[in-house]
Amino acid sequence: MASFLQSFVDPKKNWLAALHMKSLSARLRKYGLRYDDLYDPYYDLDIKEALNRLPKELVDARHQRLKRAMDLSMKHQYLSEDLQAMQTPFRSYLQDMLALVKRERAEREALGALPLYQRTFP
């Protein structure tokens, strides 16, 4: 069953997934974003921890892309065509670190240890 689901969402095997990936890529290029920029650190603490572990240059570049995208959105504008052509929306910078954080959390839970970070409300 898992291989069926993998083939269903794989853009190389399913033309609908490829079409979705192409339209998402076009929308991200308009604002100069990467797919990993869409992850919200307030939604998932694993993402917050992964962002904390990344080098400062990558996090600063992420914040600059998000600020530029918000500015363009508020102005109802897009990046120029030549800048859109230079964008790489599916170049990942967060996935490897996020996978490592999730593996560490799962290992801690399997060993019965307390989590390193917990959500607290004031």
Automatic annotation (TrEMBL):
It comes from the Eukaryota. This is Uncharacterized protein.
